[in-house]
Every structure is written in C-alpha cells, then in structure tokens.
Amino acid sequence: QVQLVESGGGLVQAGGSLRLSCAASGRPFSNYDMGWFRQAPGKEREFVSAISWTASNAAYADSMKGRFTISRDNAKNTVYLQMNSLKPEDTAVYFCVATGAVYPGSYANPGAYRYWGQGTQVTVSS
C-alpha cells in the first residue's frame, strides 16, 4: 500500500508560479512511476504529467509543455510539479498518482495508476 499526500496548492495570479509536492509513504517509492492529474469543476479528470521511477522518462499534456516541470527525489520519497506561467484555466484540484510501472504510451490513462492522493486545490485568478 502507498499513501500519497499532496501539498503546495493555493491561490495565485495569472502568470504566477506554484510548486506542488507529493510525499509518498508505504512501499519503496523508487519502484513507482508517478504522475499528476487534475480535475476542474464540471470537467473530467485530465492528465498533467508523469515521470518514470528512474526519472529517465517524463511526459506532459500538450497544454502544459514548456510551463510545467515534473521531478522526483527518491531519497525524500517526493515528486514535484513546478508550474509556471499559470493561467486561469489551470484552476483545478491536482492529484498525485503512483503505480508499479506504466507503459509510456499509457501515462495519460488514469486507469493505469493504482494509488491516488486526496488532491490539492490550485486556483489561478485573472
């Protein structure tokens, strides 16, 4: 069992930055592929980014490329999402996810992830 706890959400003005953190506990963190999804009110859950357990592979949704950066520190059992140039449409609850292994072609599939955090709210004002 893996427990995921997100932090770092909040209110920011458009153009600003936030860094989300996801602390994992339970089974060895370094064996898990990790990622982030988000869900805005009235919308479906949306893929944001994912990173392999070695950090050798990373993927981003098209609308986040160049603005968001995912990273991980296996020694701290933590994955990060640096979000820059935030837009009002980035407003959502952001969820941290983890699973044993994900085929890179399936990074964007929410069903590929076994563990989900409770989410952290990000609100971007215009």
Tell me briefly what this model is.
By secondary structure, this protein is mainly β. The chain is 0% helix and 50% strand.
Average pLDDT, rounded to a whole number, is 94
Residue share in helices? under 10%
- Biggest β-sheet: count, sense, barrel? 7 strands, mixed
Number of helices: 0
β-strand percent reads over 45%
Using DSSP, what is the number of strands? 11
The rounded distance between the terminal residues' Cα atoms is 40 Å
Radius of gyration: 13 Å
User: What is the 3D form?
Assistant: globular
Give me the secondary-structure category.
Answer: mainly beta
Which residues form runs of ≥5 with pLDDT under 50?
none
**Helix and strand sequence:** EEEEEEEEEEE
How would you describe the overall organization of this protein?
- With 126 residues, this protein is an all-beta fold.
- Helices cover 0% and strands 50% of the residues.
- The strands form two sheets. Strands 2, 4, 5, 6, 9, 10 and 11 form a seven-stranded mixed sheet that branches. Strands 1-3-8-7 form a four-stranded antiparallel sheet, with no helix packed on it.
- A hairpin with a 4-residue loop joins strand 7 and strand 8.
- The protein is globular, with a radius of gyration of 13 Å.
- It starts with a strand and ends with a strand.
- 35% of the residues are buried.
- The model has no long low-confidence stretch (mean pLDDT 94).
